[in-house]
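Moderator note: this is an archived Q&A kept for reference. The question asked for a predicted structure of one protein chain; the sequence and the answer are reproduced below.
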Amino acid sequence: MYKKIGSICKATLSITAAVLIIAVSVASSVSYAAKSKQTNNAHTFVKNMKVGWNLGNTLDAHTGELNGLENLNYEYVYGNVETTPEIIQYVADCGFDTIRIPVSWSFHTYIDESGHYRIYDSWFQRVERIVNMSLDAGLNVIINSHHDYKLIYAGTDEADFAKVCSAASDIWTAVAERFKDYDSRVLFEGYNEIVNIQEGFVYSDLSASQTNELNQVFVDAVRSTGGNNADRLLICPTLMDKYATPFLSSFKLPKDSAKDKLIIEVHMYTDEFDQSIDKTFSALEKYSKKLGAPIIIGEFGYKASYKLADKRAVAAGNFVARAGEHGIKTIVWDNGVSSEYGLIDRKKLSSSNIDMIRAITNPVKYDGSEYTDVTKYLIPDVTIKQDNGAVVHDTSWGCMVVSTTDYMQSFDASARYLKIKCINDGDAYSRNVHLVDFYDANGNAIEINSKGYPGYDFYCYEIPQGAASAKICIYSSKYATSKNKYMQYIKQGDLKLYVGFIY
């Protein structure tokens, strides 16, 4: 069975224990129909939520083909093992109170005689078993539509989008009907990272508008099934689950017959590990109040290859703690691969990453070294040549460059990393840091770093030996930007650049 050490569980595995757990699960999974009718609205639920865990790369796994077959073996094609009550109980014992279950429905569908999509009952049974395991373990459960991008997407023409909406309605009507008798501990999340099919993972007005329409299709389909779905908590994503300015400003809450039952979801994968992330969470908190709906971060995570290896757990805990201070709750992504985002070792629970789990379930803020605002030192109409690090004029596309020699005499000799934070709000969206080059005391480039599309808002660079200064270049990989525009962004406070050191 399990023993708890603080809020972290320690597994002692045996065949007998596994059999007992399964027996208990089957015995207690008789009915989940409104055992205790939850009257929580969306705000109350998010306020009371602690932290969640994703059963990633499992029920969402697929081979990429809509072959019309049942495909019951797909749960394992990404390398994960069968999900058992023992694994789910371990998740709960570790201190998580919510489980997000990503599910790819489209790869388990067939088309009926009327031309509508239907989900195989055998797949429903498998999903339902894992939902039941999770409820038995005392977890809140989020069921979504994940990787259904061959049927559900945005950024397409009107005729094609009508087919997309029909498929989305088919899937969500079926899912909602299957789970409508489950109590309010089960939440539905409409879609995962709806893609702009015409352009990929970039913003367009059309794809944003169609995402809003798809969210309305989702809400209408669920509510139409009645039962406990009449007022079930529903989660609606922004386009691609992104949180940058245009994705938020274009998002609209669907109309809903139930009051205060909608939650907004975004995803956030960032290298930030200290107080700089407060700027992002503060903006999301303000946005949440403006729309009158709470926000959850359905996916976040720090890979095993995180550059600041000694701060990986620190970063995760800092993320959860600071998000919570702004009323935003988080669900960590776990794909079951320890060399990537895996935290819980599903093959051997006792080999799970306890340090990371403890940091996430008992989060603590981390204050790094202070940042310097270097915005006023940015020089417009220049860029950095990536063959020799020379600064040259660029009046066609538009770039801005700052040199550390403008605001300090030299690097601190004890610093290990240069950390860079770029703020690009409003119309300054997509003006990111792309180029960071290091130079010796004589001004010769000794390391040239180029980050292609789309650049980044935050990054840490290890300072190379012999470096005396650095140059940082901002531009947009999508929009040409004039000098006047850059100066306008800076004057409005929409574009800012901060730098600091890690020791």
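Archived answer notes: The first strand starts at residue 2 and ends at 5.
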